[in-house]
Amino acid sequence: xxxxxxxxxxxxxxxxxxxxxxxxxxxxxxxxxxxxxxxxxxxxxxxxxxxxxxxxxxxxxxxxxxxxxxxxxxxxxxxxxxxxxxxxxxxxxxxxxxxxxxxxxxxxxxxxxxxxxxxxxxxxxxxxxxxxxxxxxxxxxxxxxxxxxxxxxxxxxxxxxxxxxxxxxxxxxxxxxxxxxxxxxxxxxxxxxxxxxxxxxxxxxxxxxxxxxxxxxxxxxxxxxxxxxxxxxxxxxxxxxxxxxxxxxxxxxxxxxxxxxxxxxxxxxxxxxxxxxxxxxxxxxxxxxxxxxxxxxxxxxxxxxxxxxxxxxxxxxxxxxxxxxxxxx
Length: 329
Prior knowledge:
By secondary structure, the chain is an alpha/beta fold. The chain is about 25% helix and about 20% strand. The chain is built from nine helices and 14 strands. It has helices at about 40-55, 75, 80-90, 105-110, 115, 125-130, 170-180, 210-225, 250-260; strands spanning about 15-20, 30, 35-40, 65, 100, 140-145, 150-155, 230-235, 265-270, 275-280, 285-290, 300-310, 310-320, 325. The protein has a six-stranded mixed beta sheet with strand order 5-4-1-12-13-14. Strands 6-7-8-9-11-10 form a six-stranded mixed beta sheet. Helix 1 (about 40-55) runs parallel beside helix 3 and helix 8 (about 210-225) runs parallel beside helix 9 (about 250-260). It is globular.
């Protein structure tokens, strides 16, 4: 089905996608359940492979979407957070293409929210992204338009969370109330149930505040009126059929109901679930969860290039990432 798609007519523009790099200058290890190997140093080489591919592409990407967890939480234990981030950013900076950074749980393992707002991971310092930034200085959400009739929205999936919030803050208190209502484990990183949707109520996930949802509603209403096509990105997946339940945002259903009410929405992209996933709902919206670099073996890759056309997007995947034709609804 995808054979030859990359050789079709020239796209309107292209962009790169990559998720869960989780670089650390430490030996290989395992995930939380000790069921999957993690290649901490090798993730930098796989990022280099992606950069090399994007640089060689005939049509150069307009931008890169880095979907969160750029460095691993282990860096904090070794007092190496700043050094690790500098190492990864040096690789990104080897290309002039702008990068839009999404924040995941590992960003908050390494840095406070205030620190992230002042860091190179705050992509709203770009002039256009800054203009589209949600006015609340404590929520990292914004939108930008790389070409006429196309808009991208970056969401803050840890807006309501125990991660990155001061314990005295209202959102921390909201987050602990949500978790305690569903999870009575002493260690809140352990899911409250072995199977089912309740698994999502763990500390390493988070949710979207009503302020952020109201802001998104406004952005999408304007996009509807302008006949734009909108792609939304977040670290956490929001469709149960695009990921394992343990990786879902706490209030995924609230966000889903908003997306499905707006004709402008064509795609939602996320990371977090390193196995990746995909679903197309009844209204034709695509939910794409990207395979994580961190659990990709040294002899493989995990990144993609998306070509945008008038009637579709085409994802050219490399390594673990599959090719996909994403027709607009």
